[in-house]
Amino acid sequence: LEAVRSGEARLLRAEQVMAKDLAAAREAAAGVQRQEEAAAASAVSWQTQAEGLWAAEERLEGRVAQLLLEEGEARADCEATRRLVDTLRKEVRTLQDGLAMTEAFHGGAEIDRDEYEEEAAQLAAQLRA
């Protein structure tokens, strides 16, 4: 009877140790579960941030393309303006030459001179504008 009681006591202690081990294993499993959930939440957060960065990159690429287009248009406008200025300068020179020739031909008639000066002034104003 004493041996049975001793065996039962050992079994009881072994069950208690196993119960403690089982509780510790369950707690460890719960800790692992919490870590997995935190890692999954972190992965979702990283994915969301990455998607936001990709969208920002696409917006920046679109803006750069727009700026390049605008730069090309501005260069074309500048070139057209430069050509217009050159043309207006040539016209002013032609008018000035015509004025000088008219003055020489007509002996400096004031009527023709006034017309040429007015037209030259208009072209010069366009040139400044």
Uncertain stretches: none
- What is the number of beta strands? 0
Strand count, sense and barrel status of the largest sheet are: none
The geometry reads as: rod-shaped
Reading the helices and strands in chain order gives: HH
Oligomer: single chain
Strand content: under 5%
Secondary structure class reads mainly alpha
Mean pLDDT: 88
Radius of gyration: 47 Å
Please characterize this protein's 3D structure.
With 129 residues, the protein is mainly α. The protein is 96% helix and 0% strand. It has 2 helices and no strands. The protein has helices at 2-106, 110-128. Helix 1 (2-106) packs antiparallel against helix 2. The longest helix has 105 residues, at 2-106. The protein is rod-shaped and about 155 Å long. The termini are far apart. The relative contact order is 0.04. The mean pLDDT is 88.
